[in-house]
Amino acid sequence: MSTSLSLQTPTLLLRLRNETRPQHEALERQAFNQALTTGTLTAEGTAHFLAKMYGFLAPYETALQQHAAEFSPAWELAERLRAHLILQDLELPEAAPGLPLCPAMPPLHTRLQLLGAMYVLEGSTLGGQLITRQLAQAGIPLRAYFTGYGARTGPRWKAFCQLLTEAVPTGPDHDDVVASAGLTFQRLDQWIAQP
Asked: What is the mean pLDDT of the chain?
């Protein structure tokens, strides 16, 4: 989930990276990420992590679709929806997957709140590329979600960052986006930590 930003990075992206670092690092300490680090991945642990991610992504994507009119076609919102890839991995029906949904989502009622959440969830696609390789090495086939955008992952992240800085060019709105991103990391961490 890491992001590489240059010295020329706009203020909003710097703030997002710096001010959400504690929450981001807490999320990185989750059991699934520890298994990645220690090379002890299992199919069961991966499936559990994917089910938890679905429980967070599904409500987020519903909110994003409810606000789709507030985003231009350049955002490619339909292509950024990835919860269905988890169902593909877990071989569950899209109509009624039967997975629990996170009951304590961060507020996703405004465009700025959605942009903060998007920063977190789009950023996770970068780490997904590394996870896909590790799963392949471990012989675990649950890789559709982590593969995400495949070769388009880097370019799509750069496009997102550009759109984000254009959409929120100045001061006061930065606070709302940064607060939302921090809360998204925090709520996702809490949700994944629940048994």
From this structure: 92
What residues contact 187, with CB distance under 8 A and at least 6 apart? 56, 102, 104, 105, 106
* Cα separation values, 93 from 97, 118, 158, Å: 5, 25, 32
pLDDT at 9 over 60: no
Q: Whole-angstrom Cα distance, residue 172 to residue 175?
A: 6
Q: What is the C-alpha to C-alpha distance for residues 123 and 113, in angstroms, rounded to an integer? A: 16
Residue pLDDT, tens place only, 46-56:
999 999 999 99
How many Å apart are CA 17 and CA 147, to the nearest integer?
Answer: 23
Cα-Cα-Cα-Cα dihedral sign, residues 86, 90, 94, 97: negative
The structure tokens listed for 108 are: 């996703």
For residues 138 and 42, what is the distance between their CA atoms, to the nearest angstrom?
A: 8
Distance of CA 181 to the CA centre of its chain: 10
**pLDDT score of 87 more than 60:** yes
Question: DSSP class of residue 78?
Answer: G
